[in-house]
Amino acid sequence: MRFEVLILGSSSATPIYGRHPTAQLINVNEQLYLVDCGEGTQVQLIKYGIRSNRIKHIFISHLHGDHYLGLIGLISSMHLVGRKDELHVYGPPPLKEIIDLHFLHSQTVLRYPLHIHPTQDLTMEPIFENDNLTVSSFPLDHRIACTGFRFDERKRMPTINRDKTDALGVPTEYLPLIKRGNDYTAPDGRIHRWQDLTLAPPAPRSYAYCSDTVMTERYLPFIQQVDLLYHEATFLHDMVDRAEETFHTTALQAGQIAENVQARKLLIGHYSARYKELKPLLEESKSVFFNTDLALEGNWYSV
Of residues 66, 121, 152, 227, which has the active-site annotation? Predict the structure, then answer.
């Protein structure tokens, strides 16, 4: 099953050096989820060939402009192109007031249902679930209320071992029952355990998105052993005092966090405008956690 992350925006605060404010697209089994929606997100979606109407769920981490100022434009464009399917937006409670006020004064009545779900920044909380995925929000430590999001693939059913079932002549209509844990009784009365007729599914995968935050232990329990960890790395460590003052993280600290939580791979992003070249950020993080990569716009990263 496909589980990938497309980077749409990787800059902090302002668009610069061809980089855009934060936004990411998550593809889980061809279902698309948008995480944060900085300025220019819909232009990036067009650039990379993503139809916005395929997105049914949008997750906003906090209300600093570089993480949500593209949202009103995206919602409006969905309206203008005739969207009919409902859209769910998850974010801090004041987000509803912001959206409602905009559409009130622009006299806009959306052609489609818009559902806004408030998040909270006190503890981890499941906020969405379907057959493929569970999404949870968890508290980060930023200057204003801010959450990260964890995407956990749901455990899949085992795969039928067709060599064994074909050899036994198991009827096709019985295969779904075996996948659900039912033993098979052959015509000769012999019982074949479902475990012997199936192959174990791949282990569920996980992706954690850590938006703006200062490095603390507050959120580490919520991102333990994720397969792919995205963590902001706004500054190099020689500016750690500035990072703490602005409630941000350095590249070195992002590597330390990935090492601490035993992540399989780390993506760093949210780069300060002071860094035209990103290689020093990558090298600093890799000095602590080798399996680090830069979040580069237009790149897909497998979970």
Answer: 66
